[in-house]
Amino acid sequence: MRAWHFVGTHKPFERVEIPEPTAGPGKVVIDVKAAGLCHSDVGIMEDEKWLANMKELPVVPGHETAGVISEVGEGVTDWKVGDKVAVTPMAEFMGYMVNGAWEDRAEVSVEALIPMPEGVSFAEAAAATDAGMTSVGALTTGGVEAGMKVGIIGFGGLGQIGARVAYLRGAKVYVAEINEKVWDRAREGGAVKVAKSIAEFADDELDVIIDYAGFGVTTKEALDVVKWSGGGRVVQVGMGKLEATIDIYPLILGRKELVGSQGGSKEDILETMKYMASGDLTPVISEIDFEEIADGIQQLIDGTAQGRLVAKVAD
User: Fold this and answer.
1) Domains by residue range for the chain, with CATH
2) pTM for the complete prediction?
3) 63-79 pLDDT, tens per residue?
4) For 42, 126, 144, 153, which has the most beta carbons within 10 A of its beta carbon?
């Protein structure tokens, strides 16, 4: 069957043919319908630190998965052939420790399965499993709730979801995004202010800032800007660069917090899909063909991707 392989840092993904999986005990095989592309997939190509998250190479990347169960293994009683499912990547660290979604069929543990609600497409469900989970998980880490002032750095595949769900939770949302072409969409999603840098909101006393970009200077600026007098929290999600130089003066004297947020929970994925099903959340998703995954990765590298990239694996 068709698949893509990650074979090592600083090497391109390879399009390969591999044997089809079978469902082991407590597992199912799903026919993959949609598989997301993520900046983390760029990261594994460019930074050796990602190898610590991998059991062995080669591995099939892809940690955003949606499809239909086509085989159930021994002991599986709560799922059946034909069920439409999304897959949380956190259960087995799909695409890193085990083969991910960039293949026609994937073996998945039942602990990772999430039922797809009516009204959610496979592309949306795939995006919900990481882009949604990670975005909403960061809101949960930040304690975002009604009445808060929340800064969002980056309005791409993650930030567009985080900003919208923060608004749907009742927060006042401030978006920092260098690409002015998406500013109108940020405002339409509920943002009260939009600017190129989070530093432009220094006078707004933001309760929480979530950095979905993570390019070093964004982390520093977030710590400078988040409100003083205690309680101001910066949630670091983006991994555009894996190092940052910060000013500890505002961190200490302002009694601010800097916390990391990786992934999220099934509840975060379910919240994302709930809003998708209702029509309250309609993130921009650009669908590409399975054979175009390498081209999609290049779009992420070049910064030309529109919204969240999702590969259509099968009809």
Assistant:
1) 2-116+284-312 (3.90.180.10), 131-260 (3.40.50.720)
2) 0.86
3) 999 999 999 999 999 99
4) 126
